[in-house]
Every structure is written in structure tokens, then in C-alpha cells.
Amino acid sequence: MNTDQTQPVTGRLARMGTHFEMTDWLFAIILVASTFLAYQPAWRGQPIWDDGEHITRAEFASLDGLRRIWFEPGVTQHYYPLLDTAFWIQQKLWGGSTLGYHLASIACHAAGALLVLAILRRLKIQGAWLAAAIFALHPVHVESVAWISELKNTLSGVFYLGAVLVYLRFDETRKLSWFAIAAGLFLGALLSKSTVVVWPIGMLTILWWKHGVLSWKRDALPLVPLLALAVLDGWVTIRTEHGVMGAQGAELQFTLLQRFLIAGRACWFYLGKLLWPVELCPIYPRWQINHAAATNSLYPIGVLVLLVVLWDLRSRSRSPLAAMIFFVGTLSPLLGIVSFSYLQYSLVADHFQYLASLGVITLFAASLSRFQQTRRLLPRPVGISLCLAMLAALAGLTWRHSRTFKDLETFARTTLVRNPDCWAAHDLLGVVLDSQGKLADAIDHYRQALRLNPKYALGHYNLGCALASQGRLEEAIQQYDQAVQLQPDLARAHYNLGCTLASQGDFPAAIEQYKQALQLKPDAPDIHNNLGVALAASGELNQAIEHFRQAVRLQPDFADAHFNLGLALSAQKKFAEAIQHCDQAVRLQPGFAKAHRELALLLITRGSNTLNDGDRAIQLAERACRLTGDQQPAYLDTLAAAYAAAHRFVEAIATAKKAFELANAAGQAQLATEIQNRLRLYQTGQSYQISDPAYSPAP
Length: 699
Description:
Elements: H1 11-16, H2 22-38, H3 51-54, H4 63-71, H5 81-94, H6 98-122, H7 128-137, H8 142-146, H9 151-173, H10 176-190, H11 199-211, H12 216-220, H13 224-243, H14 256-275, H15 294-312, H16 319-331, H17 357-375, H18 380-402, H19 408-418, H20 423-435, H21 439-452, H22 457-469, H23 473-486, H24 491-503, H25 507-520, H26 525-537, H27 541-554, H28 559-571, H29 575-588, H30 593-606, H31 611-627, H32 633-645, H33 649-665, H34 669-683
């Protein structure tokens, strides 16, 4: 008799298989509701860390962006097109509101729990409801569910578990239609997250547990095409990690022995967190791997010994061995055997064991249920009460841990409480404090991050930004320079270095940095715009105009680029086109005072001299003055000129006098003299034709 093929307690459950009766639907509703409630603190959690890279950016929000997601690998952080399509759809549904993103992830997790139930029911494993509930409520899964970008875990989990359920149906019927559906679901899982490449291993483990032996024709051969698909996807992922995500740094270079030491310790770490889920941390301390230390060798040896012992006991029960093979096998892509970018922060993470945990959870729930059934140590109501108490405790831990993911500051501070030397958390907290205007505190955390990891290019960049905000430009330039030396493909560091150099008047050096940034991000409108500004300031108007045109082509609503293009065209005496672009800048950005003033000047000096132009010039100049608080002499001077051009000399004189007084008070002697000369003309009933507007770009 196969002791693993445990029969359900009642005939009703045996007949039911994976079909739910009324009582089961009630339990399902309770389980789903409990899952949503346990994650309530994360419902409105704000984006953290890399969420901005996953939530669909503006450049991919169109149908063409969706095409690029699918057919241009490398344009997104990972090539997970189904995941990115899910984010694309969500962006259309609820835009920037995070509530929808969180509820979608929780819904996927709850659906995964119900699929676990259905799978265990089909396999006739006792404790199916308990296993599904533990999976749904276990706090080690909070990181996968409450973190927006980890939708890749919950979404791929639904496809993964759906593929298992359907493949079991194929295993029973051998119908190709079921195989095709399972293959499609597996492909969906791969296109959501590539670490599910181990699905064939997990499936073989389940089939071995189910049948007792593996048959090449019955069990292994049908999985060969799916294994080939997994290998292809794994190869693409490794290429992406090394080419796009930069999984090649010195901190990711381990010897083969070190990789096995990491894998062994990680297995025990994950098992420990499953059995005793306390002190969970968003970013765990990164171990120092010393292969000379005997204790490090004990971890992988312990895993091997455990597997050997379970293999020896397989004649009594295959379940423990199957559970551990599933656990270790599903974890295997994330154990450090292959380098990937996250390992620079920590060698372990809770979200890595999202699906792998099912092996241990199922074994625990089935063993507990079977032990209670055979031993009868406790009355059934007491046993049920204890299980409910355990689930309530897990739900409470999940509720508490979910608060960690409500915003980036909480995420970073919680990490630092449990991992004070986490350079990534110091950097993230610096970003938060920087955004709050607490520059001194932000700089302190940036420096701590760099003390712990001096080769962190983005940390130097962030410190440079904070120093630039304090006006410490020379120090900022040093930090940006460090960043581009450490990571030459960090486009934003080249760009900000260019901006800082331009602000100091070093336009040739700024142009060089902008060009390097543009090589890395050729479709970035802001880089084209600022390169155009630097070129125009260097007298290269033709090149500047080309870059301004590129900027407005890439981003038609880019008001600054339209304004700069208008000024450059005006300097080339192409006044009609200049007026069009300045007018577009005003329409796009009604609070753009400089654009209002420059358009008013163009209409006064280069317009058609019609009544409409005169009235429009006055309206523009009046709004420009209001936007600047009626205290800027140059803006008042423009308004006075607009009044005079419309022969409203009384208003022109009064406005010019106020402009003259403000210019004198501000010590702007040359401007005061020019205003005084114009005032004399207004007093004799003459308007004044201002010379070509000065080139004053908007970087």
C-alpha cells in the first residue's frame, strides 16, 4: 500500500476531488477575505525602491509602448512582457493610484492559495485547507505580495500553479488539449518571471511522489519540450541580467565553492524563516563567505545529509523527500549558483522562496493532519482551535510586517533597525530625506552608504544631486565624476554633470557630458534640450535648433524645449516660427512667466502690428508680471512697452516709472538707464521698438 496516497477522511471529500461544494465555497470566501484583511496595511502603500521601474512609465503608456515591451528586449528592466503588460493595463485602469496595484497583487496571491488547495485536493493530500491557508497568511510572503514590483511573483505563481493543476489532468487523461493548456500556462509563468524555469523539476517531483517511480515515456518525455522552453528563457534572462542589469560587478564574483556555501546556508535560512517567521527584514545582512571557516561548510553538508537520510526513508514515506526536493529545486535559481543583480544587496530575500515554500508548507500541513487523525492526541475541536490560533498568529504577523511596505521611508528605516550596515537602505533613506528637503540628513545617509560601499555609483550620483541642491557645485562635480568613472553607462550622472558644468559656464565640458548621456539614452528629450542650450550658449545655433527640434518631436508637450527653440529661431531672425513655438510653450505651461514675456516681446517687435497682436502682447505681459509678483523691473518694462505699442501711454508711463524705481533699488543701473530712456519717449507720445529679444534659455 502506498502510504503517501492518503485518502480523505470522508467519502464526501473523496467524491468531490477538486470540485468545491457549498461548505468549501464558504471556506474559500473566508480564506480570500482573511488574506485581503491581513494585508490591509499595504493597501495604499506608496511605491518603494524599484517600483518606478515596473509601473508603466510614460514612454511605454501608448500602444507603441506595448509593442516595444513585447518585441524590444532590454527596453524594460527585465524581459517579462506579460508582467509588463499587466502593469500597462493597470496603468490604464487606475493611473498613479497605488490601491489598485496592491489589490491586484493580493488577489493574485489569494488565487494562488486556492490553486494550491485545488492541486492538493487532486493529489488527495490531507490538510489541503490548512496548507492553502498557511500559504495565504504566512508572513514570509509579505514581501512578494505587499511590494508592487513583486507582482512578478504572485502573477507568475498563478500561472505556475495553474500549469501544475492542468498538467495533473493531462497526466490522468493523456489528452493533448490538456498538455497544450499546461504548456500555455507555463509559458505565461515564464513571461511573468523567469525563475519559474524550474517548473519541470517541480512537476517531475510531484509525479515521482504520485506514481512511486518515474517512467521515461509517461513522466519525463512529455516534459522535454517544456524543459527546452525553460532553458531558452533562462538563457535570455542571464543575458539580460548581465547586459542590462549589470550582474557582473566584483561583489558578484564568487568561486564555485563559495557558491555552494552560499546555497547551503540559504537553504537553512529559508527553512528557518518558514518555521519561525520572526525578525523578517526587507534587506537582510549580506554574509561574508569564507570557505576556510568550517562552520560555512556545515550548511551544504547538512542539506546533503538531510536529502540522503530522506532518500533512505523513502520506502516508508516519499513525502518528506519530495517536499525537500521541491523546496531546494524551486529555490535553486536564486541560491547564488548563478549571479544576478540582487545579490549585491543581500544573498537572501523573503520573496525568493514564494513558491518554494509550498513544499515545506504542504509537508507540515499534511503531517499535522495525518498525525492528528492517526494518533487522536487531541479532541477534534481542540485540534481545529489550535490550527485556527496558529493561522491567526500568522495573519497577525503578516498584518504587522505589511506596514513595512507602506512607503519608502518605513521600508528603509525598518531595514536599518535590523541591518544597520545596509548601504542600500542608507541610500534609499537619503533619497526620501532629500525629497523632503532635509538635505543635511540626506547627505549624511548618502555618505554612510558610500562608506559601506565606496564603489556604489548611484550613491555618488545621489550625493552629487544633494550637494548641487545646496549650491556646493565643486563637490557635486566630484561626486558625479566618481559616478561616471565607476559606471560609465549611468546616463543620469553624465546628464547632471553636464548641467552642473553648464551652470558654471563651462559649456564645452557640459556639451561633452550631454553627448555621452545622449549616446546612452538617445530618446531622452531633456538631454536633447539641455545639449541644445549649451550649444546655443556656445554660438552653435544650427546644432542647437536640431536638438531642440528632437526634444519637441520626442515630447510634444515639452514647454521648455518649445520655448528654447523659439528663442533660437528668433536669434536666427525666423520670427514667425519663433512666435509659434513660444506660443506653444505658453499654452502648454500657463505659469511659464519667461515664455509669456518673450512672446510679448516678439509680438511687440516682430508681430503683424495688428490690434489683436497688441492686445495679446499686453495680456501676456500683464500675466508675466503677475506671475513674478509685479516686482521684476524687466517684466514691468516689457509691459510698459506693450502699453506704449498700443498707444496707452498713461499706463505705459506709470508702469515704466515703477520699473525704473525697482531697477534702481536693485542696483541694476544699466537696465534703469534703458527704462529711463524709454520713459522719456512714452512721455512724448512715442512707442519704443525694443531690439531683438536677448537669448535667455530655459534649461
